[in-house]
């Protein structure tokens, strides 16, 4: 062994050993501070400086990459819309046991009526209908239809109140009954053209105790009138919902002690309500739409009441929620599993084709003179200079049944004119077009890795007696594997999320999961499901990446 | 080269030429033959065509013209892997994805050798280069010197008769280089293999080789054993390239048998041995080794001496190195042994210098 320093080493070692013996305990620096501490301090400064340098990029990445992904993850489980739109209903429905087969009780229908009425006025009910329609078809029309004829229930009470005293159909008496007198004064003094904001509605003292439902619904009404329409509650007759609420309050409460504004009108009504014709909410809702007496309608609403749901994810893997827990969908409704499998399969095919086509080219590139290599490299990159759309469309021209390739084959007599090959709008078309488009992403990392493999290795192998074949497979190829790895990861991940090309040349059998995601984002507007599909895709990619790391080792990926 | 020697030759280059671009010849008319068991070094400046020659021998480059013969058979058309020539590369070329043992096993596996045979041979080869404990390591876990030992072991493990080495020690530090030089020569000698060794380090060439071929400009300038190369350079290039040399330019004045006189550009006249000159009037460059120059010589009545002025005196331990101004040149160096009676000259002193005529070779004027 060559031990150039052997002569000097022992003496040196002895000296430092003696020093260590003199001073036990931690090492200290020139000023007596522990060495570790001062080292850390100097490192921290370096770290801070490094952090400052990458800060702009970090912020950019956070804003444009991490945040949208976090939002997507969140969206895929978020389900606040049901409980926000139907707060009373979902609250009361919580205790309902769907498995007994009974419909929910009157209280739930009451809540539904109130919730739906307010939602309909605010035009929120159709959104909820669309949301629930993802889970059960017919929900959308149920909600739209109900929003239209919901007034029927309230009209029963409204008419009777109006017959009793026409003032019940006037804006001002209602405002005086329920509003804070000071607010009314401010409201009257307010000038619409002054540009000042309208004084916010306030309930009169004690009215919430006396007429809780009425106060609540009138507040909702006043709030709506003020904020949505920009009108004054003093001039708007309340919704018939408020009349319904008043009827319920008067039936339940004793108002004889009340002596505030409009006490006479209220007391007269109190005396009369006992004789009012009434309707249960359940019957009322049945009148609005018979589907409200359908058990599955309520099952669905109850299942999607919680603020967070796994429904989108179940949907994304062809499952659905049932009262008995998650279950597979019917065979004819399963599409995402197939799509995921197809996406994986086709991405693998594309990656494989890219390796087969790209490897020889990269080899050639790295074995010709630099000038030739640069020229060839430009040819490899040429496709990047044309629009993706143009390239994909060109493939359409090439591959279609009346296209260039078929024409040539027919002309050559290899196929008959009436049996032209179907090469587009199927998996074949997608694989061909995408292999072409993603090929540079395979060639470039391969090339940059191959460039670093000196030709002497092959020479060495041959001088040791290996044939060209053995030398390649046992010496060159293993060293180019990092390039294959890098290229494959790039191509695979790019293709797994590719959208435009399969959309154009994929037809129905050659589309990817991303096409479905795009559909849910732009057409069906089911963003939650799109987010869940996207999340699964992300998890799949990360899973494969992890598997790759375990099997091949991520250190084995070289981009240059 | 006699016909006899040519027939005996184990390796022979016959009128070999090589051009990469079709415009310039990188190797020009190379003739060389070496017997079995010889350690031959190709020495020359960078770009002189040494590697090209080696690559042609190994089969990685084809000769543009001429024949290369191995054991009397032309190998021009035999592909590299069938030549059975061991090779050590400058950057070692150990396969980075294999362990040391796998690297050594490679040439044996491609020869379809059985497992137990392989293991025995690998062990022997590793022991040979004293790397027995490193079989499981990867090349990147070894130092440069260790890698070189493994490369050597790998080139020897399949027992080739001819081993080529292209500047194998070029990347190592001096001390390590010297150790390995010694080991390589010892191994070559012990195993009886024929070695073609390429280097641009003349010390390496002189210490290791049976014969040295000095390359320049695609030609062998001189092919001779080390002592002859040093003491009897055939031309100015070799004289200048090998060892330290004092060169003086002049014109031949008179040639008498194996003596001649040369008039230097300064007008001084000196005695020399005619090597590349034949008649008076020939331009020449004379070459004198620094250690063959004497101060205040007692050479006989008709010998010429030169006036010199001491410019610098360097004490180097075993020798003194004195730089002089001689015949108008400032780079004339004289080396004297550190003896008790040796004078130590001081800068500014004037001395007479002279030499035996046979130590002063009148070579070609380049
Ligand atoms: N593969 C090649 N292609 C073109 N020219 C080359 C090649 N290899 C070497 N040369 C040229 O041939 C000459 C001799 O090179 P080489 O044999 O490597 O010299 P050496 O090994 O003595 O330094 C140099 O001028 C070099 O530029
Ligand atoms: Mg070289």
TrEMBL record, chain A:
GO terms for cellular component: plasma membrane. Residues 1-33 are annotated as: Disordered. Residues 1-10, 17-26 have a biased composition (Low complexity). One of its GO terms (biological process) is transmembrane transport. Residues 340-548 form the ABC transmembrane type-1 domain. CDD domains: TM_PBP2 (cd06261). PROSITE patterns: ABC_TM1 (PS50928). Its main location: membrane. The chain crosses the membrane at residues 50-70, 344-365, 372-390, 428-449, 481-500, 527-548. It is a multi-pass membrane protein. It comes from the Bacteria. It is found in: Cell membrane. Belongs to the binding-protein-dependent transport system permease family. CysTW subfamily. This is ABC transmembrane type-1 domain-containing protein.
